Amino acid sequence: MNILLIVAFSVSVSLATPAFSGAWLREKGTGFSSVSASAEIAQNITQTIYLEYGVREDLTLGAEVGSTLSANGTQSGSATVFLRRPIRANDGPTVWSYELGIGAGWTGYAISPSLKTGLSWGRGYKINQMNGWMAVDASVLLDVYSADYSAKIDATFIGPFDKTIIDIVAMHH
Questions:
Q1: How distant is the alpha carbon of residue 119 from its chain centre?
Q2: Are 142 and 155 in contact (CB under 8 A)?
Q3: Which residues of 3-41 are buried (b: 16+ CB within 10 A; e: fewer)?
Q4: Do 83 and 60 meet the contact criterion of CB atoms below 8 Å apart?
Q5: What is the pTM for the complete model shown?
Q6: Residue 99 φ then ψ, to 5°
Q7: What is the pLDDT along the chain (173 residues), one digit of tens a residue?
Q8: Rounded to 5°, angle at Cα 150 from 144 and 153
Q9: All domains of the chain in start order, with CATH
């Protein structure tokens, strides 16, 4: 099995207020959606759709669907539906939650079922009169047929000015 370790570090300035993620559940009746697309010089095209919806105060349901068209014409992708629940009552500045999901990945006509599990920690903070938050999200996506897995740790820090976002991602395939 090929082992690939990617560590990405990005600092960006955002004009919009960031959406909470990871440990924070969506409020009942509210949702979040994100669509992204990218094209590489090598002519690989990737697109992803991410959705979350607060079913109850203690339950968020979501889905992530992604596909890639490689330069040689091979299509691949994955789809996962998941639930996120708090580990304990989240009434303080520190929040813990877990995530369980089921899905499938495909390359060409080959389809493999997958399972996903995740653990998230988040904490809001205040400096003077300005708020910010930080989060660490860890997840494992397991291919049920081959036992191959993809592990990911994502640490995010949103500065007190709601403009500074530091996102560090480490992945293992």
A1: 11
A2: no
A3: eeeeeeeeeeeeeeeeebbbbbbbeeeeeeeeeeeeeee
A4: yes
A5: 0.77
A6: -135, 135
A7: 333 333 333 333 333 334 556 788 999 999 999 999 988 887 889 999 999 999 999 999 999 999 999 888 889 999 999 999 999 877 778 999 999 999 999 998 899 999 999 999 999 888 777 778 889 999 999 999 998 999 989 888 887 665 566 667 776 76
A8: 140
A9: 5-172 (2.40.160)
Tokens of 79: 């789809």
